[in-house]
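pipeline/complex-builder :: batch 7 item 3
reading input block
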Amino acid sequence: MNSPRAAAVLRATGLRKSYLSGDRPIDVLTGVDLEVMAGESVAVRGESGAGKSTLLNLIAGLDTADAGTLTWGNEIVTQKTATVRRNRYLGMVFQSFYLIPELIALENVLMPRRIGGKIDTAARARAGELLVKVGLGERAQHLPSQLSGGERQRVAVARALMNEPPLLLADEPTGNLDERTGDAVIELLLGLCAATGTALILVTHNAAHAAKTGRVLMLRAGKLHPHGV
Amino acid sequence: MPWFLYLALRQLFPSGRRFPFFTAISVLGVALGVALLVVVMSVMGGFGYEIRRMIVETEGEVQVKSRAPIADSAELIKQIETVEGVAAATRYASGVVMILREGRPAFPLMRGLDLDSVERVANLGRYVRVGSLDNLDDDSVILSSQLARSIGVSVGDSLEVYSPLMMERLRSDEVFFPREVKVVGILEIGHQQLDSSMLYCTLRLAQDLYALESTVHGINVRAKPGVHEDDLAARLNGAGLPRGIVAYSWMDSFEEFLWVLNLEKSMIFFLLLFIVIVAAFSVTSSLLISVVRKTREIGLLGALGARASGVAACFCAQGLLIGMLGTGVGLGLGFAALAVRNDAVMLIARLTQREEALRRFYQFTNLPTHTATSDIVLIVTLTIGISLLAGLLPAWRAAKLKPVEAFRNE
């Protein structure tokens, strides 16, 4: 379990989001409040369609909330600043890995740094180290098509950590993996986050995986509730 | 290297694949268009260049003309030859005549040559295929090849020459007999228009037929090497030529003809450019498919912090790179095709058994080419520009794609 620190890496207050289904508005999030401290790991669970991915998209600044405020560190996130800040502030891991098929594993890991600026020897060394840490040091030169599902997700984890973000968002990262591989990926994810002091928000259906995080929240009726409440 | 350029290169040339099919086909489409443009423009340029050479070789770079016949031409020639840049000058008389051979008439343009000086200005001797310019006297003529063929005469035959002045004389009840002349040469310059209907004779004979006495219609001027024809014409006009006498460069004299040549070239360029445009459409189509196929990767780029402009630049760069590569390959293919053009033409002529027809019609067995730098610059600029435009629509589509929508579609 992570020990909370004074600095909050994420603060969401009163986030609301609704979608139109035909003419009828559907309220997905009805006022989400969430604070995540540096180095903390939080699991978000909920039924399918509860709005977990919507919440993650809002937190990542990929989507705009109808109401509420979002703060990364000390700065309020706006649509204008989200894109550039996301590169350095957030790491993201997705259910479908989303590796760029034309790039070898090493280059996929380097991609966030490439988007954010220049690639230098230090960046290459870090990408190589991250691949070693996720157990893929030998597969750095392989294309995604030459890797298994578990290996691809480990590359995605390394990529998410490339820019040393304070916060990592993982959306069902084991959804496309078998149980054993999924367990290994979660262990890796939690281990690396703990080692680097990166805060983690893990969206998962898997109760066992959620239990390994420092705090478990349930998304019900558009709001977050502590697990068991 | 900016990330969007890096990714564009990687998407065109993925790691581990030596021959990416999409890239190869796209590049080849553009390259074929460029190669065709280079070959056709060079051959058209070659024809134009040959025509220029023929005109200058037979007429000189500058013509000094007047509305009325020029009197005291000997004095005028002296004046012209003192102008800087003039190598030589020769007088001529010209006009339409009728020739008759065994009841078959023809109406060629007669050119009366001053045999004392014509060879210093016009290199006509090299174009006399049968007979010789040296045999030309006041009772003989040299005919252009197609004219000779059309009325069925050859060297040694006689024919009658009628001047338009006969009509004038008939009005005053004078009888004016045609001049009987002997054909002493057949001349072939190598251009259909110049060879179709020309009759060359001495200046004296032309003056007789047109009752010019000692006057002439104009003076052909040869420029010294390196002197531009327009500059020389301007210099002559500024040298105080007698009133009404004007110097024209060969380009001025053949302005309409050159305009038609340029129009033909421009039209062919315009039509062939459509090959590049069609190739560009196929690039657009392929890139659009790529945008749809790569929806999740485009979404991912946004999630990694890439701006929409960067995503757009990535697809624009792919169009640009295809255009640049296609242009490079096309230039190579085009110049390679030009290098083997004569072998190819001769092979086709041999296979179709038309070698003689080719030689007779074009007057050269070697296909002339002249590649103008301006043509290449135009081809390169337009092709790369069109290819860049081809990437714009896919780029716009990709830039519009929001990461959250991309993931939702996934």
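note: Residues 1-5 of chain A have pLDDT under 50 and may be disordered.
queue -> next item
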